Amino acid sequence: MKSILILNGPNLNLLGIREPTQYGNQTLADVEDMCRAAGERLGVSVDCLQSNHEGELIDAIHKAREGVLDGSVLGIVFNAGAYTHTSVALHDAIKGTDVPVIEVHISNVHARESFRHHSYISPAAAGIIVGLGVDGYVLGMEALVRRATQA
């Protein structure tokens, strides 16, 4: 069975606690459960990883490349959190591995502080989902499955 990696960056372990008016009341565990249920519906397995450490996120992208090459991984749904706006290294990891990445943001980053308007991830991403709440994760999964069936 093919798989999708749900990758979450810094502070997303605080979902449901941190700024619920901005990010909602669902926890990261709720989001992961929702993604696993969507995976069953879509016929893919789902692996989830959250890290507050940039290097661990880069390592996960590098590892996903192996799965993309052998056909076992469709891609990554990635909420890089604040690293979206600061990490050239994550951009380079995505570009360097050619792993299909759907960038996801729970909130509408373009309606927030100006420093959140720029993404280093976007130019390397296959697609971007912004401001649709945690539903964006499932939409990202659906996009990866669609892309794989059209290839």
Relevant terms:
151 residues, alpha/beta, Rossmann fold, 41% helix
Q: Over all CA atoms, what is the radius of gyration?
A: 14 Å
Largest sheet: 5 strands, parallel
* Spatial gap, N to C terminus: 17 Å
- How do the SSEs run, as a string of H and E? EHHEHEHEEH
The total beta strand count reads 5
What's the arrangement of strands in the largest beta sheet? 2-1-3-4-5
CATH topology: Rossmann fold
Rounded mean pLDDT score: 94
Number of helices: 5
Number of domains: 1
Task: Tell me, briefly, the overall form.
Answer: globular
| CATH class membership | Alpha Beta
Q: Mind telling me which CATH architecture this is?
A: 3-Layer(aba) Sandwich
CATH homologous group name: Dehydroquinase, class II
Helix/sheet category: alpha/beta
Give start-end ranges of low-pLDDT stretches. none
Give a short synopsis of this structure.
With 151 residues, this protein is α/β, with parallel strands linked by helices. It is built from five helices and five strands; from the N terminus they run βααβαβαββα. The chain has one domain (3-150): 3-Layer(aba) Sandwich (Rossmann fold).
